[in-house]
Amino acid sequence: VYQTADHYIWIGSYGGLVRYDGSNFRNFSQEGLIASSSIRAILEDAEGRLWVGTNDAGLFLYADGAFTRIPETGSPVFSCVRSLAQGKDGTIYAASSSGLAIVQDGVLTPVEDHPLLTGQTVYSLGVDAHGRIWAALNDWQCAVVEGSSVLGIVTSQQIFPEGQQIYAVASDDEGCIYLG
Q1: Whole-model pTM?
Q2: N or C end: fewer C-beta atoms under 10 angstroms in the chain?
Q3: 3-state secondary structure of 109
Q4: How far apart (Å, rounded) are the C-alpha atoms in residues 57 and 42?
């Protein structure tokens, strides 16, 4: 569930992408306006554009009343987008079951600076107070990324000494990072 600056409530689910205006629900997937009925992530960027990550058809941008699929640069294919974030420089990041990608020149491009980010599941993203991206990885670690460079890896043992494992990351409006 996501509320955009224009006060619409967007709901992403296995039933499609739904927008609520306070009176009516509109399902863009059922209308055939977005090529997926399985929505996993929604983000409004600093320019007011809506980014939609799907479970089966990749990343879409909603602008000027239309959805445009963001193409990938070869392999891997980023069809399952699990989480979205925007860095301080405006870069859009997409966490997927194929790794971490950024949108560069209108194309979804893999972040290949570290083997943990290529071809591996990235579960969720958060943005810290410095605009760096924190990415929860499928091996119970968290990568700290700026641009397309990995600044460091935080392990579960560094945060949870009693054996708990990092599975999710989130951030608040002040840039505090929460690891779960």
Answers
A1: 0.93
A2: N
A3: strand
A4: 14
